[in-house]
Amino acid sequence: MRAGVYDCDVLVVGGGIVGLSTAFAITRAAPGTRVTVLEKEPGPARHQTGRNSGVVHSGIYYRPGSLKARYAVRGAAEMIKFCSEYGIPHAVPGKLIVATERAELPRLHALAQRGRENGIAVRELGAAQIAEYEPEVRGLAAIQVAATGICDFVAVARRLGEASGAELRHGQDVVRIDRRPGRGVAVRTRAGDIVRGKVLVNCAGLHCDRIARLAGDEPDMRIVPFRGEYYELARPGLVNGLVYPVPDPAFPFLGVHLTRGVDGGVHVGPNAVPALAREGYRWGVVRPREIATTLSWPGTWHMARRHWRYGAGELRRSVSRRAFTAAVRRLLPVVREDDLVRAPAGVRAQAVLRDGTLVDDFLIKEGPRAVHVLNAPSPAATASLPIGREVARRALTALGEAGR
User: Fold this and answer.
1) Binning pLDDT at 50, 70 and 90, where does residue 404 land?
2) pLDDT of residue 401
3) Extended beta strands in 191-306, E state
């Protein structure tokens, strides 16, 4: 790498909504900064961004003061405003979080309190009041969260990319990174291209730990992929808006829920089962090298020993439509097995620490001339605008230091 020869100032790896939001934030904060985004797929937002339920989360679930809480609350309002300004399909129907068993009632009340601590308006409902919002849903109690929305996150990602003015290069799978703190970074792609930048930003999602290690930084975590399987509701009229169960606070997953999308259809799901590849959207996608990487990480085994009972239930719902239907019936008793039509799955890029801890908050780390986004699953799409500004701030600081 020759000093002074650069294709861009900031080189972003990953063309999902977080990477494109970062590019957008950089060019807004520092006009004239040259940004290049490398995305291995032929277009943007092909993985986590484009394979979720499209929910603009209110921020009610997240620990007060955490990045998730602060960025989701702020990001939800900004996302709806962004969609309005750019004509992107969206709505704010609100949602119900429903307790169906007595054991869930204390958790539901605690969730309402957490929402208020995060500055979110919530309304606690008795069993009879649930029907005001969702006539076919049954429960002992619920909370109504008016601020929850839905939108087309793929359209948002595309608009962020266009508005950023960055050079967007698709079909560029990064296979090697040469980083020299005194000079910058050079990236080689599978296509044989070499791109040079002064600062690297890693927004590679399912592959973020691999990119960090290619850059020479040990992230002290590994991505363990969890597939979320969805169905479409053949009778979408059974649900008016969004209906969620009370989540288990031990897990970062929200449980099987019902979500009316901007297209009028109703998504049912997801569950959370280990994927056999980082892009393992069905059981038949198996990549032995990626499985070996997952199994060689000590945290995988610690996690499995700690949570095997939960995992067994998720696996059962994966292989049995009857079991999946039973989970849905807890919220929507009238649903039938033939009401559920298979829909495309998603894969969550879940960071797991060496001791088996599932990283619950967003995780952003820095190295010499590098910023790595190492845990940004849901609600990262909701929070993508404030996440992008934070990553941009760190990247521009590194860029300024590189210029000294």
Assistant:
1) low
2) 85
3) 194-202, 222-233, 242-245, 257-260, 266-269, 273-274
**C-beta separation of 360 from 33 below 8 A:** no
Which residues, at least 6 apart from 177, have a Cβ–Cβ distance to it below 8 Å? 185, 186, 187, 188, 200, 211, 214, 215, 216
Q: Give which of 377, 385, 389 is closest to 53, Cα–Cα.
A: 377
Neighbouring residues of 317: CB distance < 8 A, sequence distance ≥ 6: 256, 271, 323, 324, 327
Cα gap 398→198, rounded to integer Å: 9
Q: Please provide the DSSP assignment of 65-127 as one string.
A: TSHHHHHHHHHHHHHHHHHHHHT--EE---EEEEE-SGGGHHHHHHHHHHHHHTT--EEEEEH
Rounded-to-integer distance, Cα 292 and Cα 214, Å: 18
- The amino acid occupying position 24 is F
Q: Strand 55-56 vs strand 273-274: parallel, antiparallel, or unpaired?
A: unpaired
Is the pLDDT reported for residue 311 higher than 70?
yes
Q: How far apart are CA 37 and CA 26, in angstroms?
A: 12
Mean pLDDT, the chain, whole residue set: 95
Q: How many CB atoms lie within 10 A of CB 25?
A: 25
> Which residues, in sequence order, are bridge partners of residue 245?
98
| Burial zone of 66 (CB within 10 Å; 0-12 exposed, 13-18 middle, 19+ buried) | middle
- Looking at residue 3, its pLDDT comes to 47
DSSP classification of residue 63 = P
Distance CA 277, CA 206 (A): 10
Q: Looking at the DSSP assignment, which residues form a beta bridge with residue 231?
A: 268, 342
Q: What is the largest CA-CA distance in the chain?
A: 71
27 within 8 A of 161, measured Cβ to Cβ: no
| Cβ-based neighbour number of residue 62 at 10 Å | 25
Q: Are strands 95-99 and 242-245 parallel, antiparallel or unpaired?
A: parallel
| pLDDT average, residue stretch 334-361 | 96
pLDDT in the model for residue 182: 83
- E runs forming strands in 93-221: 95-99, 122-126, 141-145, 149-151, 167-170, 174-180, 184-189, 194-202
pLDDT class of 92 with cuts at 50, 70, 90 = very high
Residue 160 CB contacts under 8 Å (≥ 6 apart), including other chains? 17, 20, 21, 23, 24, 384, 388
